[in-house]
Amino acid sequence: MRNGLLLVVSGPAGSGKGTVLSELLGKSSDFCYSVSATTRAPRPGEQDGVNYFFLTRAEFEKRIAERRMLEYTEYVGNYYGTPRDYVDAALADGKNVILEIEVDGAAQVKRLFPSAVLVFLCPPDLETLERRLRGRNTETEEVIARRLQKAKEEIMHATEYDYIVVNEEGGAARAAEELLAVAQAERLRAGRCAEERIRSFLGA
Ligand code: 5GP
């Protein structure tokens, strides 16, 4: 069986990554989601092993030393990283693996796996982003201002990605369809499947 696709999805807070990825995972069983490890504290409702693997700094650093992280970064004072074993096994099983990670991690993955596909999920405009951030109703003005600034910085990295998908207001289903289309097209790339097709055509 062919290896699956490594699909990296980044986007600022308020881009709607969570909603779009849930739509995608609900639409197709060919995809699976890599649960990251982090040293940040769980938010209300978050579960260990579902949203993240919540680790202490010492545990995280031990895993880095043991080379058990495919990539990792420090983001706003906490470590975030992708456990290597799960990704290797799922790809070998022919699954398309989704990594929901920030821009620094995405660049590391692209260096390690040039065949990874990088998709930047973008909110339509700043006003929409601000409205979404305020809509959560949980953050102070100062935090909202910091997140908006961070979002502007992150969006500047969109040029380093292979695809940009815009998550319009109420458009999560459409954005998920577009991600699916990207994955389908990428799997048909001659560079990924020509040899296998020729062998199968020749019965070799
Ligand atoms: P949050 O704390 O809001 O859950 O995540 C903060 C940022 O870390 C988000 O941009 C998220 O995509 C990113 N992130 C989550 N997991 C990983 C990971 O395993 N590696 C990297 N590099 N970034 C991650």
Uncertain runs: none
The percent range for strand residues is 15-25%
Q: Mind summarizing the main beta sheet? A: 5 strands, parallel
Give the end-to-end Cα distance, rounded to a whole number of Å. Answer: 15 Å
Task: Tell me what you see in this structure.
The strands form two sheets. A five-stranded parallel sheet has the order 2-7-1-8-9, with helices on both faces. A four-stranded mixed sheet has the order 4-3-6-5. The model has no long low-confidence stretch (mean pLDDT 93). The chain has eight helices and nine strands. The chain starts with 5 loop residues before the first strand and ends with a helix. 46% of the residues lie in helices and 21% in strands. The chain is globular and about 65 Å long. The protein binds guanosine-5'-monophosphate. Guanosine-5'-monophosphate (5GP) binds next to strand 5, strand 6 and helix 4.
Task: Spell out the key features of this protein.
204 residues, 21% strand, binds guanosine-5'-monophosphate, 9 strands, alpha/beta, four-stranded mixed β-sheet
